[in-house]
Amino acid sequence: MTAALLLASLASFLLAMACLLWWELPARLRRRQTLEHFDRLVTNETAAASPATKAAAVPLAQGRGSRWMDGAKAVLTRAGLPATLKTVMLLLGPCLALCLLAWWRFPDGWLVPPSLGLSLLVVGLLLKRRIDQQRMRITRQLPGFLDDMVRMTSIGNSVPMAFAATFTTTETPLRTILESAMARVRSGADLDWALAQASAPYKLESLEMLHVVTGISIRLGGRSDQILQRISHFLRDHEQAQREFVATTAETRMSAWVIGLLPMASGTILALSNPDFFNPLFTTTTGHHLLLFALLMETAGALLLFRLAKSL
After folding, report:
1. Structural domains in the chain?
2. 23-37, 89-103, 198-212: which has the minimum mean pLDDT?
3. pTM for this structure?
4. Can you tell which superkingdom this protein's organism belongs to (predicted)?
């Protein structure tokens, strides 16, 4: 019966992760469609990229490690954390400590999987919150950077020259991205390719739009100052609408997370602090039935809260 409960807990955790990925699926699809549309517009120009740009992009492709390591580094980069082993240990250390504490309090090991799943979920939520904060800061800084580029291009400077003269006045975290792009430009890469490589880990639509528009302005010419100014206005309007949406739905989303995590967190804390209180739940038939009923109710409540939050 204990093995069945462990499998049910693992299934509930996987179901919660699947719901989270499903929630973010429409946004990923919209971003992919937008990028495909822009890519079709610049396919011919991208095919005619300079040899220096291709040579600069080859070491980046050859230096990739495993997909898991690349994904972990990208997540830490989006969160504004150094992509080092020390950071990973600091994030996973409390999870391992909680698992060891659960093993010490319950030698049977039945509390280890729920403790591990709950601690990893908390770490994931903290990383997601930090990533959202970093993205919001970048989105707020980008219109000001574009306004400075507009002023530089309106007096006769080219887009690369305006970029080189403007990025030093920005602040982190946007300055980190721009400095990385400028380092690639100094090594011989085109500006749009450099921006694409530097902004790839962040997966931010505004940065992807910027490097596409920059490539069009460099290869096709035209009034780049007007294009950049329109992008700046669009980003300000989009950021304002996003802030209003977040403020409107903050209470419902926070209530969903608190109500969903409170039973699991309180049960884990009570089990660790008073193991004798929870032993009858795993040694008697009535306790097994109560645990299965609580697990089913928790799963049903999580799905209902997920549908409620997704409908906003």
Report:
1. 136-241 (1.20.81)
2. 23-37
3. 0.64
4. Bacteria
